Each structure stands twice: as structure tokens, then as C-alpha cells.
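WARN retry 2 of 3 for item q-0093 after timeout on previous attempt; input resubmitted unchanged.
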Amino acid sequence: MAGEAGWSRDTWRAFAEMGWLALPLPEAHGGLGGSTVDTAILMERFGRHLVVEPYVATIVLGAETVARAGSDRQKAELLPAVAEGRLLLALAHGEPTSRFDLARVAATATRDGAGWRLSGHKAVVHHAQCADWLVVSARTAGAGTDRDGITLFLVPANADGVTLRPYPTVDGLRAAEVLLENVAVADDQVLGEVGGGLAVVEAVVDRALVLLSAEAVGAMDATVSLTAEYLKTREQFGRPLGSFQVLQHRLVDMLAAKEFAHALCYRAAGAMDDTTGSERARAAAAVKAETGRAGKRIGQDAIQMHGGMGMTDDMAVGHYFKRLTMIDVQFGNAAHHLRRFAGLS
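OK item q-0093 returned
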């Protein structure tokens, strides 16, 4: 995290060698054809060990979008390189004023001869500064929150007119503002149908919500374990903190919250591959709302039971809580998805 890139390419190559990058990708294009449950198991371990490599940006978001919407040629050119660790992707969809509304896209794409010209501002694009290609959404028709008229484009990260403003996020990962100024793209860089990009983004994000929740479950599990160990070893008033019944009760509540989030996460993971439309969306919204709520409670209780030291970077629980906080707000916090779930009922 302290390095300029914020992650290790050696570690990324090791991920490729172990098949982790290929796990959810189609077998026809160099992948292993794994299910959402398979990927959730991996993401849970990532969360437990605070993995900082761009797995979500490249595999869960970028490659999944290409796999869903790309042409045979686009898939053949990009996905095997992703699986081998030679190519990085980033999804540039959110904007400064879009909040959590996936349909609110102001970036524009206008016809220019045989191609297109893209202009706009994409916000908090995770790992954009290390990506080779950006998957950019822009309006080819409509305005505001119109569902129709959003198109996806493959844009080289070093293309003329693309400006990146990178920064570290609260949890120590990397993101960037992506500024597009009259960026030229060819027709063969359109990803999917012109004007039909929103449905693809919604499906990709719903699956990402479940996999981010799996990462959160792993981080919660580590936080509970660290807190239990601390209560066993830290003494106050001549006895271990864990001997105080009130703290035992709080620790049990943390464990119960983690276990419920864990069960809901894998139920939702199974639903991602077996359902579509509103049923898929309800499952994703439910687990994101619950993991956001549970992560906040577990993180706050862990910090409090660690005392003042829990607020320092020297204690691991602080890093886990930061990651849980950032997972909560990515693609919509707990309150947003609770409202979304209620609206889909």
C-alpha cells in the first residue's frame, strides 16, 4: 500500500499462475468458467487478508462487462490476456453527481464519421491509473436518468484526451478521477449494443455487490478473531478483558452478525447465476444492506474494545474497519440498498 502503485505486480502474476484471474472467466476465452459462489469463496479469503491487488476492478467489473457484452473478437483479444495477468481493466461508470443511481450518466458520446467522440467526467474509478483499458459508459441518446441511450466503450487508458487524477482512498487502495475530452474511439470499440449499456452495467454491479459482500464477510471474520484474541490477552484491573461478561456478550453479538451476513452472502451468490431481473436485484440489495450494517457494527465494536489503540494504524482492526467502510459505500451504502430492496418487494 505504501508504494506508488499501491499493489504488487509480482503478487498479481502469482494470482494468474494459481488460476485466480481465470476463475470466473468463460472457458472459451481462457477462463475456468467458475460460478459466483466459486468467486465468492476466493473474495472472502481476500477480505480476511486485506488483499490490495485490483481483482475487483479488473476481474469482477472490467472482465465481467467484456464477457457479458463484448463481441467474439473483443473477448478473444482481451479475456485471455486478463486471465494470464497481462492486461488490466477498470470500469469507469460513476460520475460526481450520480450518487448511487446507475442510470444517471452525463458523459456524452457523439458520432464523428465512422467513430465516436467521448467527453465527460468519471469519478472514483478504482485502479484506473494501472489499467490498460477503461470500460467507459456514455450517453449516445437521452438525458438525465433515462434508461435507454447509455452505451459502453472500450477506451485505451493512454488515449489522447484521457486525463487521470489518481489518489489513495480511505482504505489505502487507489482510485482516480477520469476526465474525457473529445476522446476518439472507433466503432469496433463499442461494447455491446448502442444504447443498451445500462442493463449490462446493472447485471455486472449486482454480481459485484455480492462479491464485495463476500470480501466484507472475510474482513468481518478477521476482525472478530482479532478482537477475541485481544480480549484474551489484554489485562485490566488485574484480569483479562475477556473475563468481563459484558464484553463477552458484545463479542457474541459481533460473531452472530458476521455469521448472518455470511449465510446471506452465499444465498445471494447462488442466486446470481440462477435468477435474473428483479429477483437477482433483490438478492444483491439484501446482502449489500446486511453486510453494510453488520460491517459497521463489528468495526465500531472492535475499535471500542481495543481502546485508544484501535484507532491507530499499528492495530490491524483499524485497517479492516476502513476497508469495511469503503465496501459499504461502493455502489450504494446499506441505507440505499435497504430502500432498493423495499422498492423491489
